[in-house]
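During the reporting period the student researcher (J.K.) took over the structure-prediction task from the postdoctoral fellow and processed the backlog of single-chain submissions. One of the processed entries is reproduced below for the supervisory committee.
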Amino acid sequence: MYAKLARGIGRRPVVVTISWLIIIILCLVAALTGLGGKPLWERLQTDLPQVPGSSSGAGHDIVQSVKDTEYPMQALLKGVDLKAERENATKVYDKVMAGDLGAIADLNIPTAKALHKELAKFNEDLSAMPGVTQAVNPFIEEMAIMDPRVQQMIAQNGDSFLVSVTMDVSEEKAGSAETAKEWKKAVEAKLKTLPEVINPVVKDTSVIVYSQDIASDTMLAQLQKDLIKSEAIGLPLSLIVMILVFGGLLAAAMPLAGAGVAISGALAILLAMTYLVGNQQSFVVNVMSVVGLGLSIDYGLLIVSRFREELRSLTPDRISAYRQELEAKGASAKTLSINTGHLIAMEKTLSTAGRTALFSAVTVVVATACLFVFKPPLMSALAFGGVTVVLLAILAALTLTPALLFLVGDRIIKHPKFTEIPGVAQLRARLKENRDQDKGFFAGIARMTQKAPWLFVVLTLAVLVLLASPVPRLHMLNSSIELIPQSSSVRVFVDSLSKDYKGIGPADHSVVAKASTEELDTWMNDKVSTLEGIGTVRPAHKVGDYAVAEVDFTNSQAGSSAQMDTVKEIRALDSPFEKFDSGQAATQVDFTASLAEGAIPVAVLLAISTLVLLFFLTGSILVPLQALVASTLSLMATIGVAVWIFQDGHLASFFGFTPIGGIESYIIAMVVCFGFGLAMDYQVFLVSRMKERWDQSGDNRQSIFQGLRLAGPIVVSAAAVLVVVFIGFTTGEMIAVKEIGLMLAIMVLIDVAIVRMLLVPSVMNIFGKVNWAAPSVLKKIQSKLHSAV
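J.K. obtained the following structure tokens:
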């Protein structure tokens, strides 16, 4: 199979390369333009990930059912000074309510009265705009500032006030989504003129306009910005690392060509998914990018390295003999026109490194596909995106990379002058393999683990357990606005509302009941308001056939364990009506429960797939079991370090983020599945070389020694490039993007430096020849399947 593939590509390398180039261009054009429809970024969504069929999912759908007919938009005017006037109005109001009607003469609100005058025409014009059903501000009446309900629209410290607009942008009203969008933009533009309107009264003010669409657009723009920034940093740095590894630009650039295929193809497929399935979560794009970059570089590096190795090992006699063999078998003129040395090297490369990469890709695909087990649609989208990008990465590695290697030929093993620079030369000498002598860095590691295997097993296990120790404290979040940088105007608006506008800002929790507002208010006051952790219970309002009552918790940390406990207590209360809920804490309760429900099936699938695939590769029972335990330890250590950094806040200033009390739940699930596959990736790279030597010599010590010596440089080089790529994603401002980049970088570092280089060879040295043992029946099955592939 691999020989046929090598010959097929070798006959038409230009055609293969141009075909992939056309595919890349078409995929990018489709994703960026939408081919007549909306481009990919405009078809993505940023809502809290929901669990279909859950209480929070049902409550969210009910609350959102009126989002078009009651679409809110608000403007926050900052830079005014209403503190004294607000306090004066409150005192006068209290006296009047106590029966002192003459106290009205003490009302001293000149700024409020002036604002009433300046905003009257503005509010009239705003109310008359298409789609606007209501426009309200604290100065809509001359003395409205006295009303406690109106005072809720003025900041408690008096330095800002709100203007609120409600719109009907439903299809029945607007006629089309495009028209509705135009109406929203027009109102947004109108609200942005507020500083000019009140300039005669208050100068040097600023305004922030907020709506659901503005928040969503801000998050999408930030994700897009972070993606561009991270790749702009990660790609050049990874190219530099690969130039140092390979000693040349040509060899270094080839793995990146595969990344172009994986990322562009995945974006086009994600665009198709938005049409077939519906809008996808925006975060999927960043995940697909980081996964596509990482695996494409991994597989491309493996193919290029082995091809260079095979080219260097060629002899004139071997080339001549193979040429005669091809002629004797009646090979076609097109096949005979291929450079024979290049063909030999490519056939050997694909049958060894290509097969290893294919096995690796299958393990990653199976591990990533486990995300389909989880209920939330976001997990299925991550699974589909991950599987797609892995398949594209391996397809490019087995076709595009060989085509480029055929075109480049012997130039791939030539080193430019800069590699003779002393520092560069020594670094390359450390990383490259040495086939002629058992010397060098990786040979030294192999000897150490053979001399004291038990010592290294104890030390590495101790380090891994220590790193994993924070795992029991892991708190998983489902954040939304909290993910946006604090410097963003959207974040400033939301934070200001939470801090300065008690009772009018976004509530922590909503109870959605199939009841009248009176019934729900009675139940909320009797049952809910007395619970520990409940702050304010707001009056219920009608949403279609349901009543919705909003609740503020005493614990203000969004999605905290305390908030989740309070949600569970509310749910446990008996009620005379059917009830649901919505809010971040409620969503987290259901989302984490769905992850816990799927955890055991996913763990079983990962274990079975690992054992079967590695047995298929090695013919061993013990090696897959060792890999399963080792990869699990890597993941636990990675999550432990992530808890220490992101949840506890250590190194927060260094990585440029503000801790939000936990780690995003879907990132944990994704890192577990993809990280497990990536860990197996390196296990396959390492063990496949050991297996080659075992099949040749039957000597366990030599197979481990030579396997580590030969595969070590590839594994470490691939890991170094991946860490650079993943670290690039920590330069973005969205904390979720930082989490995925840093967690994957940590996982690779721990897995390669501690597990694959030290723990795995030490354990294999302890078990000796038992490593490669298996029942004869299974051995026969494995041998037949292995030969076929």
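The committee noted the following: The chain has a mean pLDDT of 88.
J.K. will present the remaining backlog at the next meeting.
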